[in-house]
Amino acid sequence: MLVSLLGVSPQEADDELDIVWSNSVRLEWLQSDLFNVTNSALDKHIQCAARAYLLYFVGCTIFSDKSRTRVSIDYLKLFEDLDQVSSYAWGAAALATCTSS
Prior knowledge:
By secondary structure, this protein is mainly α. The chain has one domain. It has a two-stranded antiparallel ribbon with strand order 1-2. Helix 3 runs antiparallel to helix 4. It is globular, with a radius of gyration of 14 Å.
């Protein structure tokens, strides 16, 4: 998922997953490596940066883990189709996550 949805190389994805030893990525990694995109970038690169930003955002807010430094890559599935993101019930998801923790 990291390769196809965030546009990172397989080596970058493996390196990041090896560092955290789980199916999550560091918020710092998302912010430092994947937000760098300009308006003149290819549409694919802009979409990858948007997914990285959204994953970072939910990792900092409604789906933060106990360490508050990582986010599960499972949430990346939610951003595969960026046109659908606005149709999700984010408030309900946040409440469900808070009550199950």
